[in-house]
């Protein structure tokens, strides 16, 4: 498994930690593959009752590795990132997230597919897809307008505006905002550990029922977004934006009609 992932077991709780501090936990293809594999195994393992996904107290994740986006862009349903998101989408047990510091791009998108989300008050969440010449992914274009209303979702998805953990909690993206990273992780762990005492099949049935009404529509939207995202990654707009990030400059979109 990727050296940038840490897996811990504490009773019935499996914790999956993104650990690539020198790149702010940017997600590589190897990390996505590892995370997908951990989830698939945890789903089969009866002794696991819940999974906790986290980063460090300083950073949840800066999103997809931008160098990977340039050198090895994901290609459709077989790609590592798609396999990870599919494993999360299909996961039958509760997934809890503990988020501190930046949660960028897929770092925010994945929270929409978790069951319980705890954030630090000053966490910074952001889906800067348009800023990178890209488009929303993994159902966020469906989920966010429904959850937040079109106007607020447009600020997040059409402007790529960032928001705090406190806002995420008040808007219903997160369950609760806590004082700092340590308090956030402690709360997420406490809530995730509750599943050890609960009836596992009842929890799994309840999760499936809660997700069922939107499931097929969501699956179609995810495929449509994925096809467009792949095209956009090869677009001149995205190439300009991704190169600008690597060169630490502001992208220049003035030349695009
Ligand atoms: N992919 C690849 N490298 C990344 C990265 C990413 N998504 N995010 C950060 N890094 C790298 C930086 O290039 C830098 O590398 P270097 O030290 O070799 O130059 C290192 O991680 C530290 O990042 P830096 O930007 O200096 O840290 P910061 O504390 O000033 O800012 C973030 C942290 C997370 C706010 C900022 O890095 C950021 O906005 N990254 C997001 C990139 C992005 O757009 N991701 C979404 C993809 S959809």
Automatic annotation (TrEMBL):
Q: Which Pfam families match?
A: ECH_1
Q: Which domain of life is it from?
A: Bacteria
Spell out the Gene3D superfamilies in the cross-references: 2-enoyl-CoA Hydratase, Chain A, domain 1, Lyase 2-enoyl-coa Hydratase, Chain A, domain 2
Protein's UniProt keywords contain Lyase: yes
Print the keywords alphabetically.
Answer: Isomerase, Lyase, Peroxisome
**UniProt cross-references to InterPro entries, sorted A to Z:** ClpP/crotonase-like_dom_sf (IPR029045), ECH/Chromodomain_protein (IPR051053), Enoyl-CoA_hydra/iso (IPR001753), Enoyl-CoA_hydra_C (IPR014748)
Entry's localization field: Peroxisome
Q: Which residues form a coiled coil?
A: none
Q: Name one GO molecular function term.
A: enoyl-CoA hydratase activity
- Whether Cytoplasm counts among this entry's keywords is no
E.C. numbers: 4.2.1.17
What is the protein's major site of localization? Answer: other
What PANTHER family would the database entry show? ENOYL-COA DELTA ISOMERASE 2, PTHR43684
The UniProt similarity line reads: Belongs to the enoyl-CoA hydratase/isomerase family.
Q: Under what name is this protein listed?
A: Enoyl-CoA hydratase
């Amino acid at each position: 498994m990727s050296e940038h992932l840490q897996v811990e077991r504490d009773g019935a709780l499996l914790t999956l930690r993104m650990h690539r501090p020198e790149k702010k936990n940017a997600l590589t293809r190897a990390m996505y593959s590892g995370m997908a594999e951990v989830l698939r195994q945890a789903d089969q393992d009866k002794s696991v009752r819940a999974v906790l996904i986290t980063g460090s107290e300083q950073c949840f994740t800066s999103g997809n590795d931008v160098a990977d986006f340039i050198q090895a862009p994901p290609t459709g349903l077989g790609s590592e990132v798609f396999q990870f998101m599919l494993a999360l989408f299909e996961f039958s047990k509760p997934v809890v997230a503990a988020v501190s510091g930046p949660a960028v791009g897929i770092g925010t998108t994945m929270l929409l597919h978790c069951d319980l989300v705890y954030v630090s008050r000053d966490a910074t969440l952001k889906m800067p897809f348009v800023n990178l010449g890209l488009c929303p992914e993994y159902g966020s274009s469906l989920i966010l307008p429904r959850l937040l209303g079109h106007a607020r979702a447009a600020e997040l998805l059409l402007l790529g505006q960032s928001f705090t953990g406190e806002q995420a909690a008040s808007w219903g993206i997160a369950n609760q905002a806590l004082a700092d990273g340590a308090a956030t992780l402690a709360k997420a762990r406490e809530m995730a550990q509750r599943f050890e005492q609960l009836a596992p099949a009842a929890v799994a049935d309840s999760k499936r029922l809660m997700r069922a009404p939107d499931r097929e529509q969501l699956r179609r939207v995810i495929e449509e977004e994925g096809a467009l995202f792949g095209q956009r990654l090869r677009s001149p707009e995205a190439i300009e934006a991704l190169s600008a990030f690597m060169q630490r400059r502001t992208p220049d979109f003035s030349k695009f009609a």
